[in-house]
Amino acid sequence: MKKVIALVLALTVCGSLVLGCQNTTKTSVTDTTAAGPATTKATTAETTAAAGPAKITVVTSYGGDDGNRANYETAVAAYEKATGNTVNDASGTSNEEWKAKIMADFETGAEPDVLFYFNGADANDLVNNKKVVSIDTIRAAYPDFASNMKDDLIPASPADGQKYAVPVNGYWEALYVNKSVLEACGVKVPGADYTWTQFLTDCETIKAKGYTPIACSLAEVPHYWFEYSIFNHDTVATHATLPASSTDTAGKAWVAGLNDIKTLFDKGYFPTNTLTSTDAETFQLMADNKAAFAIDGSWKIGWFQENAADINDFTVTYVPAQNERKATDLIGGLSMGYYITEKAWNDPAKREACVKFVEAMTKDDVVSLFGATAVTALKNGTTAPADADSLTIAALAMTKSATGVAPAVQDKLNQTARTELFSGSIKNIVTGSLDTAKAIDAALAIKE
Amino acid sequence: MNSVIYKRKTPLLVLLIPAFLFMTLFLYYPFVMNIFNSFTKITGLGTSGEGYNTPWYANYVHLLDDPLMRTSLKNTLLLMLATLVFQVGIALLLALMVDSIRKGTQFFRTVYFFPIVISATALGLLFNLIFLYNGGMINQLLEKLGSGAIDWKDGTHYLFTMFFPVMWQYVGFYFVILVTGLNNISRDIYEAAEIDGASGLGRIRYITLPLLRNVLCVCLTLAITGALKVFDLPWIMMGSGMPLDKSWLTGTYMYHQTFSMGDVDYGSTIGIVIVVLGVVVSQIANRIFKEKDY
Lengths: 448, 294
Description:
The complex is a heterodimer. By secondary structure, chain A is of the alpha/beta class. Chain A folds into 2 domains: 41-170 and 334-371, Periplasmic binding protein-like II (D-Maltodextrin-Binding Protein, domain 2, 3-Layer(aba) Sandwich), CATH 3.40.190.10; 171-332 and 394-444, D-Maltodextrin-Binding Protein, domain 2 (3-Layer(aba) Sandwich), CATH 3.40.190.10. Chain A is built from 19 helices and 11 strands. Chain A has helices at 2-21, 32-35, 44-47, 69-83, 96-107, 124-128, 135-141, 179-185, 196-208, 223-231, 249-266, 279-287, 300-307, 342-345, 348-361, 364-371, 390-400, 415-430, 436-444; strands at 55-59, 86-89, 114-118, 166-167, 171-178, 212-214, 291-297, 314-317, 329-333, 336-340, 404-406. In chain A, helix 10 (223-231) crosses helix 11 and helix 18 (415-430) packs antiparallel against helix 19 (436-444). Chain A starts with a helix and ends with a helix. The model of chain A is unreliable at 17-49 (pLDDT under 50). In chain B, helix 8 crosses helix 10 (200-229). Chain B has 13 helices and no strands. The longest helix of chain B is centred in the first third of the chain and has 34 residues, at 67-100. Chain A binds chain B through residues 2-3, 6-7, 9-10, 13-14, 17, 96-97, 100-101, 103-104, 106-109, 125, 219-220, 271-273, 275-277, 281, 284-285, 288, 290, 415-416, 419-420, 423-424, 427-428, 431, 433, 448, and chain B through 4-5, 8, 10-12, 14-15, 17-18, 21-22, 43-47, 132-135, 151, 153-154, 158, 240, 242-245, 259-263.
């Protein structure tokens, strides 16, 4: 009897292990790896096969302290209410680790159903490995999908030239200014003719008054200063050119730009703890009226609206220029959008829910809510809110008077090269322990 | 009747099979694959290898000339030493003091053990706020006292800032083990020593410590091997090896190479170093702190 009980117990435990390891998703119509072009033949009948509410997993960069977090939550809640579907939100903060985690999720088969992600070289692996569905494929089953967007402005993947991500709004990068700090230091708010020389003079004055001139964590997010420092040594037409080495024309611009950052560091214009602080810590200096300038993207407006004691203390303007670049030349573009993954597309229970989710998140009013000041692909353009605050109005004025827009060149680097440069090299370049040209060549040598 | 099940070992062996299969599938097979992966070129987690490295042992050569690997090994060994001295040392002192009091023993046990139940992520955020440069708890106190703020993560203070929370978190763990060990020492021995005129320190030196030796040895072995696994708190507090790549530990550096840099094969190589180091160190610890029969 004991023997029988022991045998039954052992079989039960073994059985539960085997069952636990099985894939419980029995609704998938085809194997993901085998799907490929077959999905283009999807029929409307298939798409409507799903009945009842679905639960979809969504990953975006609207996590953490993102300025649009509240808008995102509102839009998701509206979608859930309208469709009865539920969203399992796994959003995070956009940084190199977040990007690496997303890639690992895809590679291990744990990808989300909908992904809000970059549309440049970052997504090449997703496209090459057929992990995401093209807009054309979706339109074959849902002809009105993304019909409110100008097709010409939807960025194509550099991997195969097809369009995959539906953009919400584009971005610009510019100089956020704490006006109350400038006033206390007797420094004028920079305008469209702001030069690098004037900027250095202003920083010296601000530092002498006991304030931090530049809020930036060189240990964590030197990305924006990197982009504009290089931009100051090339032009709108040439900025997006990835150098082959530190000695060609583009490479020399990179060396000169990074050396400018080193100069700013040597002069003590960054926070005392810029090499040991996080981006959130240094930005808090802006909110606490302890720092004067910070370069960041259009998405940061929401952060100021949430964290500033008085939004009127802040404005956004052009980054100081030198050489051929005009101050009114901006870094910007449409760099992110919503992808539907092959895995979700092949699941009749989720396909419809994912399409509706992307449509809900890219409606005209939602796009305007997320960034009325940003570059947009909407046919009707964005609508600025009637009660726009002074920071939003300043951003609108700035983008309206821009003389040129160049995309961020760092988007052309692969993940490993970018991590090497931003997490590994820049901090050592500014302290002088790493030669600038060698650091650039090392990063450029990383091809995969 | 009861003895039958103990005489017949077959049912017990059958019951051991599921756990054995589980361990084989989720521990030993990945470990063997990890050794294989360290010789191949893998550029993304989950992707298959793109052939062998040239030469096939390239990652092991790279280990020797990688200055950050040396930093991580040095810091891990330092952490091990700090763990021995501060975690077990402080736990022993606290255990001796709590064992000497008549009331409140249970209260102190709970208080000192409490940090163990808090997640390392929460602790990391807590200590980040304590050590924050602008407006952190310690710097606010220093400024109130008229002293300037200190960057607790700079080149001078990073080891203290990284080690202190780790020490603090696990003192309670060893404290509970040691208190339990102290409770097992018969009170009669202390009473006899007291009658013979032994002082308080004398009782600790000649009765408590010798009788606590085996428990202490277990604690020291656990502390040494545990130090090799420390990852979460340092990663949250000192992510990316700040300052200037000085604070890497073997665990955090392996994670960085694998997940941030996408260099999975080199990450696998570091993983093997961690396992080898763990086996060697635990063997040495077992020999040094060998239990004795009394």
